[in-house]
Amino acid sequence: MTSTHFGVIITTFERRMHLKELGFLKDKKLIMKILVFVICVCAIGMFTANDYFLYSKTIAKVTSVTNTYSKTRDGYDGTYTYNEKYYTQTITAVIKNGTYKGKTVNLTNSYGKSEVYDTKYTKGDSVFIEQVKGSGSSLTANIAGTKRDYFIAVILAMLFGLFLLVGGRKGALTILSLVLNMAAFYVVLRLYIGGVNILAMTIPMTIFFTAMLLFFMHGWNEKTMLSFAATIITVAITTVIAAVMIRFGSRVDYDFLDYLNQPYEQMDANYIFISEILVGCLGAVMDVVVTMVMTVNQIAETGIDLTRKDFIKSCRAVGDDLVGTMINLMFFTNIAASLPKFILFMRNGVAFKTILRYDVFFELARFLTGSIGVVLAIPVSAVVAIWFYRRRAEKCLSH
Amino acid sequence: MLIALTAVLFILIFIICGDKGTKSIVSTAMNAVLLLLAIFLIYRNFNPILVTIGMCVLITVVTLFYQNEVNIKSKVAFFSVLAVIVIMIPLVYLMAHGANGEGFSPENYEITDSNGYTRNIDVSMLSLQISIMFIALIGTVIDTAVAITSSIYEIRSNNLELPLPDLMKSSFTVSKAVMATSIHTIFYIYIAEYMTLLIQYMTDYSLSYVINSQSFAKELISVSISGIGCCLVVPIATIAGAVFIKKHKMT
Questions:
Q1: Does A145 touch chain B (CB under 8 A)?
Q2: pLDDT band at A170 (very low <50, low <70, confident <90, very high)
Q3: Gap between the Cα atoms of B118 and A197, Å rounded
Q4: Does residue B119 sit within a domain?
Q5: What is the share, in percent, of chain A residues with pLDDT greater than 90?
Q6: I need a surface site. Which of A70, A213, A384, B174 has the fewest CB within 10 A?
Q7: Contacts of A342 in chain B (CB under 8 A)
Q8: d(Cα A311, Cα B74) in Å, to the nearest integer?
Q9: The whole model's pTM is what?
Q10: Is A85 helix (H, G, I), strand (E, B) or coil?
Q11: Cβ separation of B208 and A57 shorter than 8 Å?
């Protein structure tokens, strides 16, 4: 894209604006809303950045940092050698809560330039400290992690604010549905920890949420019912395909499933993995199904007496439009988080094939099963919708 | 199992989809190759952030112009995606830099020095963290942008005389629905991805530990960045789409 190209777009845009065809963009209400949004985000950020009194652990805010080079270590991956520089940090910080409130404390920290397992602290960071020792102006302590709650609060405020700002009523429903989803998920995990089979709870939860979500988003009508049926059928087929492969394929090595508590039982890990697959494809399947059902509905509503072949042809055309970007979304959303693993392992001399086969196995498996769900959703929803509308048409004729 | 799943996916696409759907295999493969190329370039010491942003643009080009062909819909979608990437750069940088989320967290205890993954690798984990956010963002933003521009095109082609403000109004109605479904799609993917992490939080840690922990901050910020990108692309694609598709001569 050349800059002139972009310039042309901007000027056409401005000309349009002058024509007041985009007048509603300058709406005072909109400006007010944006203002409220910015103020809310700032206020939440300010509050959570200073909520030291909520914590019983001692927190200090870094006021100055000096980094001194300490050593260089070599890494070797079989072909290349890497030089990792290590630094020592001398940190001065002010304690923000507890008995030492207001006092200055000296901290030390060391980090490697890559920050693979360690952290480089900078001025302005808030850190948890433990074992505060010394007296008067020569307090020392150990760092026990960064205070990150205000980043969480700010990003969530921005996200939810944008939902409301952009989506309006739909945005509010989205927030409500996400919160309810999280709450139900929390209950499921609590019960799981209490000893209940995770898959046995994920299945009813999925059914319930599909129903609730479709009802929220599209109201109570026949389209919602059809979408619900098609979604459940598609997700069930996808999960069964995955479960059969897990059951009869080679033994899945859950040592490579990130964050899985150890020791684990193979069967229990299997259930967790199947639950992941089931939940992972749910959103995408629903998306495809709703669009398909709408299409069939619209074709049926036009009243043109379409033969079954024409129906399938139109469905296929709509489905084709959806599949590509959906599979892409699945791919990037699932794979993105494993990027540092690739780099770390490759630079440690792990063969690329090994990484694909073991270390990102679960990410790839979720991507593939999700995509299978997306593709399956097309014929399933088409068949369900066509069956319904043809039956209705026949009823109409017989009356 | 991966090979079997891939086979099932390919067979299904061949049976169910027409030519255009089959193209999606090729474009996904191309995107996968691009991603691998990016990984390789980073491995060979190129700047991760620059490589990633370059790759994001290429991925967008492949997905939009190869798969959906060069037309007014994909062009508008392309510019919307680029605009979102540019807007998101400062936010992503600020969040990644401030939250100290880079690197591997203690919750990911399989990956340690003593398990043979030494830390002497000389690649900035902070840059990689920024790369992750962009890659996670790109899929959903493209999907949302295409859905919006296609529906605006449909609205316009069904009613050629519709004046711009009305076109925009009905476009926004559709866009909001698109946004809601896109958000849910990525939400469920992430829930699946972090199920084990959530279980670990609930068995081992207190709430105050979790909301300040590195892993939680890292994942939540990444998820939210995708969501925010998804929200931002809605007004951009809708306004740009309505203006340019209105100007576009229908054939």
A1: yes
A2: confident
A3: 37
A4: no
A5: 48
A6: A70
A7: 39, 43
A8: 26
A9: 0.90
A10: strand
A11: yes
Please name the residue that has the structure tokens 């129903």: A211
Burial class (CB in 10 A: 0-12, 13-18, 19+), B32: middle
- Write out the two tokens for B112: 């340690």
Higher pLDDT, A300 or B213: B213
Chain A interface, best mutation among B143, B172, B201, by max A CB count within 10 A: B143
- Picking from B150, B196, B217, the nearest residue to A151 by CB comes out as B217
Whether the Cβ atoms of residue B114 and residue B203 lie closer than 8 Å to each other:
no
Q: Is the pLDDT of residue A3 over 50?
A: no
**Residue B117 included in any domain:** no
Give the pLDDT score at B251: 59
- Distance of CA B92 to CAs A115, A145, B39, Å? 18, 21, 20
What is the extent of the structural domain holding B67?
2-102+124-247
Cα–Cα dist B50/B183, whole Å: 27
Identify the helix (H) or strand (E) that includes residue A77.
none
Distances (CA, A) of B97 to A122, B93, B228: 10, 6, 18
For A48, list phi and psi in degrees, rounded to 5: -70, -25
Interface residue B16 vs chain A (CB under 8 A): yes
Chain A residue numbers with beta carbons less than 8 Å from the beta carbon of B57 are none
What are phi and psi for residue A198, nearest 5 degrees? -70, -35
Query: How far does CA A9 lie from the centroid of its chain?
Result: 33
Q: In this predicted model, what pLDDT tens digit does every residue of A240-293 receive, in sequence order?
A: 999 999 988 888 888 888 888 878 889 999 999 999 999 999 999 999 998 888
By 3-state DSSP, what share of chain A in percent is helix, strand and coil, each rounded to 5? 65, 15, 20
Query: Domain tally for chain B?
Result: 1
End-to-end distance of chain A based on CA atoms, in angstroms? 61
Which residues of chain A from 147 to 186 reach within 8 Å of chain B, CB to CB?
147-149, 151-152, 155-156, 158-159, 162-163, 165-168, 170-171, 173-174, 177-178, 181, 185-186
Binary contact (A290, B181; C-beta < 8 A):
yes
Identify the segments of chain B with pLDDT beneath 50. Answer: none
Task: Round to whole Å and give the CA distance between A298 and A396.
Answer: 17
Q: Which residues lie across from A142 on neighbouring strands?
A: A130
Confidence at residue A306, expressed as pLDDT on a 0 to 100 scale: 59
A 239-268 residues with CB < 8 A to B:
241-242, 245-246, 249-250, 252, 255-261
CA nearest to A255 within chain B: B110
pLDDT at A26 (0 to 100): 55
User: Any CB–CB contact under 8 A between A365 and chain B?
Assistant: yes
The rounded distance, in Å, linking the Cα atoms of B14 and B8 is: 10
Residue A5 has pLDDT above 50, yes or no: no
The CATH number of whichever domain residue B136 belongs to comes to 1.20.1640
Question: Coil, strand, or helix at residue A89?
Answer: strand
Interface ipTM: 0.92
**Chain A residues touching B21 at Cβ < 8 A:** 316, 319-320, 323-324, 375
Q: Is the pLDDT of residue A24 over 60?
A: no
In a domain, B118, yes or no: no
Q: Is B110 a member of any domain?
A: no
**Residue A134 burial (CB count, 10 A):** 12
Chain B residues with beta carbon closer than 8 angstroms to that of A261:
196, 199-200, 203-204
Mean pLDDT for all residues in chain A: 86
* Residues in B touching A375 (Cβ below 8 Å): 9, 12-13, 16-17, 21
pLDDT tens digits, one per residue of B149-208: 988 988 888 778 888 888 888 888 889 888 988 999 999 999 999 999 999 999 888 888
